[in-house]
């Protein structure tokens, strides 16, 4: 298979999206843009196509997929019921970067749910994504577009080398607006569990539902969400998180050991690392966590062809989307097995 990468514009979007929709209808795979990260999509109702996702990514079969819809009416074919709290979240945050866990209908394949009785669903705000779903005529199951365990793709070019020959089409629409995956939530009778943090924050959820919002820690809860069971987001070199006050001294220490070092930092620290260039990636302003989020996976991928021995990345405030940033960096820095 030869993978086609196509740059989509307002001028060619009708042609590109119709071709992509035909690929989905024919049981094959398309990489498409969303506001969070790029997705690797197939029809939610086509088991053979769904299996291709796992093969292309090298993804464990017990890792659930997120189902993307373009219209709330599509829920009737996917979920058993909708609670009042789920409805409030949909009204507030859809379309947008929020995935909600529902009880799934029996006809939904266990391939989608990772063998669970639940299904993870969101409605992306990216207009190209929603239009593709409309044209395909089915909800699209789509994990992040990358090899399993690697940083997610935030441009089509990011993941072309990884998925070339494994998917039929990659739609290139430029850099994802948010840059980290959606918030995933599960609603219990008296509380909301955040299974995976994202751009929809704890504070936003509390304000909407007036319920306690808790970051899930129990394995039984976390298994309902993609991106929580296995090592994720990892660059090829080992990643170490360091406070911004200590990162320079840490780099000097490793340099004395003869190691080749990569640095991920902010404009506030830029002048401290001139001697480490070109192996320095500036994420942006440390006070602008949305900017940091958008550039995060590009930073992790930046060093893949630099042959560095270790990447040092400064910590960020765990507030707002900073919780999601530190979650992804923590998973990316987990010791390699």
- Structural class label: alpha/beta
Order of helices and strands: EHEEHEHEHEHEHEEEHEHEHEEHEH
Mean pLDDT: 94
Q: Give the proportion of residues in helices.
A: 25-40%
Q: What is the straight-line distance between the termini?
A: 32 Å
**Total tally of structural domains:** 2
Please state roughly what percent of the residues sit in beta strands, choosing from under 5%, 5-15%, 15-25%, 25-35%, 35-45% or over 45%.
Answer: 15-25%
CATH topology grouping of the largest domain? DHBP synthase
At the first level of CATH, the class of the largest domain is Alpha Beta
Number of strands: 15
The biggest beta sheet, please? 11 strands, mixed
The low-confidence parts are none
The CATH architecture of the largest domain can be named as: Alpha-Beta Complex
Please report the number of helical segments.
11
Radius of gyration, whole Å: 20 Å
Strand order of the largest sheet: 1-8-2-3-7-4-6-5-9-10-11
Shape call = globular
Superfamily (CATH H level) name of the largest domain: DHBP synthase
Please tag this protein with its features:
337 residues, alpha/beta, DHBP synthase, Rossmann fold, 2 domains, 11-stranded mixed sheet, 4-stranded parallel sheet, 11 helices, 15 strands, 31% helix
Your description of this structure?
With 337 residues, the chain is an alpha/beta fold. It folds into two domains: 4-222, DHBP synthase, CATH 3.90.870; 238-332, Rossmann fold. 31% of the residues lie in helices and 19% in strands. The protein has eleven helices and 15 strands. The protein has an eleven-stranded mixed beta sheet, sandwiched between helices. It has a four-stranded parallel beta sheet with strand order 12-15-13-14, sandwiched between helices. A hairpin with a 4-residue loop joins strand 9 and strand 10. The longest helix is centred in the last third of the chain and has 14 residues, at 289-302. The radius of gyration is 20 Å and the shape is globular. The relative contact order is 0.15.
């Amino acid at each position: 298979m030869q993978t086609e990468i196509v740059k989509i514009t307002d001028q060619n979007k009708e042609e590109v999206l119709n071709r992509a929709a035909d690929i989905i209808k024919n049981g094959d795979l398309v990489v498409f843009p969303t506001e969070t990260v790029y997705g690797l999509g197939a029809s939610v109702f086509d088991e053979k196509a769904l299996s291709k996702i796992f093969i292309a990514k090298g993804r464990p079969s017990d890792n659930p997929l997120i189902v993307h819809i373009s219209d709330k009416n599509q829920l009737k074919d996917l979920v058993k019921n909708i609670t009042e709290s789920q409805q409030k979240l949909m009204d507030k945050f859809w379309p947008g970067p929020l995935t909600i866990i529902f009880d799934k209908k029996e006809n939904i394949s266990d391939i989608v749910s990772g063998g669970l009785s639940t299904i993870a669903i969101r409605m992306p705000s990216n207009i190209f994504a929603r239009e593709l779903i409309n044209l395909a005529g089915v909800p699209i199951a789509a994990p992040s577009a990358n090899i399993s365990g690697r940083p997610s793709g935030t441009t089509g070019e990011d993941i072309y080398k990884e998925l070339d020959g494994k998917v039929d089409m990659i739609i290139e629409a430029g850099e994802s607006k948010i840059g980290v995956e959606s918030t995933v939530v599960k609603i219990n009778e008296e509380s909301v569990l955040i299974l995976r943090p994202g751009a929809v924050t704890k504070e936003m959820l509390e304000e909407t539902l007036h319920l306690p919002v808790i970051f899930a820690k129990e394995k039984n809860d976390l298994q309902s969400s993609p991106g929580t069971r296995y090592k994720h987001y990892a660059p090829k070199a080992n990643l170490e998180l360091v406070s911004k006050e200590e990162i320079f001294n840490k780099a000097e220490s490793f340099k004395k050991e003869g190691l080749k070092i990569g640095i991920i930092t902010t404009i506030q620290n830029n002048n401290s690392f001139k001697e480490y260039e070109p192996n320095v990636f500036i994420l942006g302003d440390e006070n602008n966590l949305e900017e940091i989020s958008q550039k995060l996976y590009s930073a992790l991928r930046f060093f893949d062809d630099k042959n560095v021995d270790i990447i040092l990345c400064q910590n960020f405030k765990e507030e707002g989307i900073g919780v999601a940033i530190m979650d992804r960096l923590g998973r990316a820095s987990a010791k390699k097995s």
